[in-house]
Write a structure and sequence with these properties.
It is built from 18 helices and 14 strands. The chain has 508 residues and is of the alpha/beta class.
């Protein structure tokens, strides 16, 4: 490492705070007695602080030179709420009540209006919270959001499973699903992005002023939020839930192997129940759909974490029997910390022989068939070698070898009884996806298969903000015209100039 550079100039001494230069307000000049402001010099500088102090006092505001327990409003610039709280702790001021923590934009608006203006979400500073604690902390009592810095991209927001706005996000999830059924992609994305940003908020929205400055909330979205605040529900969501087409598509797509085209066909033929579909002799079903009907009750019930962990043990046992040096990682929602899911995804990679990798999934299928653990499988061969990297489609499927299967999980592999199991049943059908990727692509594949809205926005961010193309295979820098190597997810985030976000904070 190079030694630190030394300057030929003498080191600058830190200037003492020039508090004396700030003259206190005289009592007769104060118009708003109940409001006591302290302007934080940190990251603002002495000159700007003095300038704002004088302007505010001319307008009749009481601005204190020193922090005291009488201060009701602390104003800061380029600081988060957490930054201000840390500074307050160092000062050891015991205030009788916690002052409001506000961005300087609030004070500037007050000065412009010549009176105190209403504090909204865009003014209030974000107070961070450590969500790694196993206990559910609950929402913050006041919107602590410096909406100033909430990104439109999910990959720049930390979204845990603690959703404080579920009444709104559930509504937007339903509306997005209905748009997906109707193949209205633009509206679907509008509702998905609204739900995504609301899930990231560390407080509950209780009035429309709390939505000010939050990205991805257009007029239509805000109209729905306002209706829910006032009436407790959305008339549009209620209409969708009662819509025959939505109900039918929701039911049909719950069958493994049934997509939108098949659902449309069945709906147009007049079917509204699965029993009618199954009894219709003119219909032919794919092998996947037949398996979907055969194990329907198990597959529509949620997979618990205990069931996912039991499957994980069996997957690793089978993989390591043929490829002892393989890495097997559970991905998807369970990697993001979810306790329930609809299937279990695994990424498999090995630094060893390529030939062994190519044959691995088929060998695992053969082993499980012999043991009676395989109810259905569809092995999709790799097209990776033919791929022109990287894909320009944000939601493009990857080209790795993969296997979509229905696994027969024996009851004795579980440590405890599961609520979704019928009494006396000795096994449960569980959807499992296995993905085999080349070792040098493991970081990109792991990032992609961890999933959620987060990963889609990560690709969108790469394209629009960094002039790069990201997919499950690679990261390409269009400016440098080169592929960027990465051994880990952290390195991919670093290439994109983003702070690393843990999997459990990607529940967007």
């Amino acid at each position: 490492m190079d030694p630190p550079r030394t300057s030929h100039l003498s080191p600058r001494k830190k200037r003492p705070r020039q508090m004396g230069a700030l003259m206190a307000s005289s009592p007769q000049d104060i118009k708003f007695q109940d409001l006591v402001v302290f302007i934080l010099e940190k990251k603002m500088g002495t000159s700007r602080r003095a300038f704002l102090t004088e302007l505010a006092r001319r307008k009749g505001f009481r601005v204190e030179n020193e922090l005291s327990d009488s201060v009701t409003h602390i104003v800061a610039e380029n600081n988060s709420g957490s930054d201000v709280l840390e500074w307050l702790q160092v000062q050891k001021i015991q205030a009788s009540s916690q002052p409001e923590l506000l961005d300087v934009s609030w004070l500037i608006e007050c000065i412009g209006a010549g009176k105190p203006v209403e504090m909204t979400g865009k003014h209030q500073l974000v107070v961070g919270r450590d969500y790694s604690d196993s206990t559910n902390p609950g929402p913050l009592k006041t919107p602590p959001i410096a909406v100033q810095k909430i990104s439109q991209y999910a990959c720049q927001r930390r979204t845990t499973l603690n959703n404080f706005n579920q009444i709104f996000t559930d509504a937007f999830d339903i509306l997005a699903e209905n748009c997906e059924f109707r193949e209205n992609e633009d509206s679907c994305l509008t509702f998905m992005r609204a739900a995504s940003v609301l899930k990231s908020l560390p407080f509950t929205i209780i009035s429309m002023k709390d939505t000010e400055g939050i990205p991805c909330l257009g007029s239509k979205v805000k109209g729905i939020i306002e209706e829910i605040i006032e009436d407790g529900e959305s008339s549009e969501v209620k209409s969708v839930l009662n819509d025959e087409r939505y109900q039918s598509f929701k039911l049909f797509t719950s069958v493994f192997g049934v997509g939108l085209k098949t659902s449309e066909k069945w709906f147009r033929m007049g079917f509204r129940t699965l029993s009618k579909v199954r009894s219709e002799k003119s219909l032919t079903f794919t092998r996947m759909q037949r398996a979907g009907f055969l194990y329907y009750e198990d597959l529509v019930s949620c997979v618990t974490r205990a069931e996912a962990e039991a499957v994980s043990v069996l997957v690793k046992e089978a993989v390591w029997a043929f490829l002892p040096d393989a890495f097997v990682t559970m991905t998807g929602g369970f990697r993001r910390g979810k306790k329930m899911g609809h299937d279990v995804d695994f990424l498999i990679t090995s630094p060893g022989s390529t030939e062994d990798e190519e044959q691995l999934l088929q060998k695992v299928m053969n082993l499980w068939e012999k043991k009676g653990l395989l109810l259905y499988y569809d092995l999709v061969e790799s097209t990776f070698e033919k791929l022109r990297l990287p894909s320009r489609k944000v939601d493009a499927l990857d080209h790795f070898q993969k296997c979509f299967l229905i696994f027969k999980l024996p009851r004795q592999r579980l440590d405890s009884d599961q609520p979704s199991w019928q009494e006396g049943k000795t096994w449960k059908a569980i959807r499992v996806d296995l993905v085999m990727c080349p070792y040098e692509r493991r970081a990109f594949a792991l990032l992609g298969w961890t999933g959620s809205r987060f990963e889609r926005d990560l690709r969108r961010y790469a394209t629009h903000e960094r002039k790069m193309i990201l997919d499950n295979h690679a990261l390409y820098d269009k400016t440098k015209r080169m592929f960027l190597k990465a051994e880990s997810e952290e390195e991919i985030f670093a290439h994109l100039g983003l702070d690393y976000i843990e999997p459990w904070e990607r529940n967007a």
